[in-house]
Predict the 3D structure of the following.
Amino acid sequence: MGEARDSTLSGKVLEFNPIVNGVDFLDSAISNLADSQDPRNLKYAVLHLQAAIEILVKVRLQREGIKHVFDDPYSVDLNKFRQGDFRSVSLSAALKRLDRVAGIQLADKERGALNFLSKERNKLQHFGSTSNHEVVATRAAAALDVLSQFIQRHLTPDAPEQEVAHLDRAEGLIRGALTSIAAVSWARLTRIGPELDAWSGIVIHCPDCLQMAWTFLPHEGSSRCHFCGRDWSQEDQLATAVEYVENVLGESRHVAVKDGGGLPIATCPECEFAALVMVATRNDPNTYLTAACFYCGFSTNKRLGSCGRCGTPTLDPDDGICPNCLNDLVARD
Ligand SMILES: [Zn+2]
Ligand SMILES: [Zn+2]
Ligand SMILES: [Zn+2]
C-alpha cells in the first residue's frame, strides 16, 4: 500500500489525520476478527489490520519529521501532505527508516508476523485467499500482538498531546480483544512463554487479568504481568495480596468477615508483614502449595511450620514457636 489515500477506505479522505484512521482500522480489524468464523469477516480483519499497522508505523515515523513518510523524501510538500495527496513510504521501507532515524528495531519474529499478514493481504485483495482459515486467523492475531507491542513501546511513550486519547482507545481495544478473542490471547501467551520460562523467580496469576503471567518480585520494576502489562511494582503490596486472594482464590472479604474468619493471608516469617499467601505457580499450576509474601517477595514451596502460640507460620516445620512469641516468653521470665 504505497498510497496514503488507502484503497480500502470507503469514500474520500478529506483531512489527512493518520492516527484517527489507524485506530479506526484497528477497531474494525478487531471486530471482524472476533467474528472471523465467517470468511468475509476474516478477510476484512486482515485487510484492516494491515491498514492499521501501516498507518500507525507511519505515525511513529512522522514524529521524526514529515519527510520520512514520503516515498521520496525529496518531494516533501506540506500542502499535499495536509491533503493526504502524496505517495507515502511502503511499510517495509518505513520500518527500515524507523531503524535508521529512531533506532526502533523489530525482532525477526515480529517482522515475520507482519510479512505473513502483508502476503495474506495481497492474496486476499487480488485473488481472494486460498489459505487455511484457522492459520490466517492465528497469524492475524500474532500480527495484532506485534502491533500492540509497537503501540506500547514506541507510540504511547512521549506521545504528542493530540495523539494521547487515540492511543488510549487503541490500547483499550486491544485489551478487550485479549480477553474476548481466543486467537488473540493465544498469540500473546505464545509470545510471552519464553519470557516467563526465562524468569528465575516464581510466575503467578495476575490478580487483574487472571493469567499466569506475573513475574513476581515485589518492589522491583520487573514485577509485572506479561499478559496484560500491569505493573505490579507500582501498587500497594498489602492491597495487592488482598486483591490476589479475592480475585484469584475467589475469597470474598465480606464473606470472610461475616463468617468471623479472616482472609487466608498469614504473617510472613521473613518480614513479619501480613502478606503471606498460598499461590499457584507456572511450575506448579494446579496446586496452591507455594507460600509467597506480597510484601518482601519471600517464597517457598517447602512446608512451613506454625507457631503453637499465635499461629504465625515459621520457616522450620519442626519449630513449635515463632521468634516473636519466643522473645515474648523470654522477656516475661
Ligand atoms: Zn495481567
Ligand atoms: Zn515477607
Ligand atoms: Zn507465635
Remarks:
- The CA atoms of residues 163 and 290 lie 44 Å apart.
- The first helix runs from residue 18 to 34.
- The two ends are 85 Å apart (CA to CA).
- The chain is about 50% helix and 10% strand.
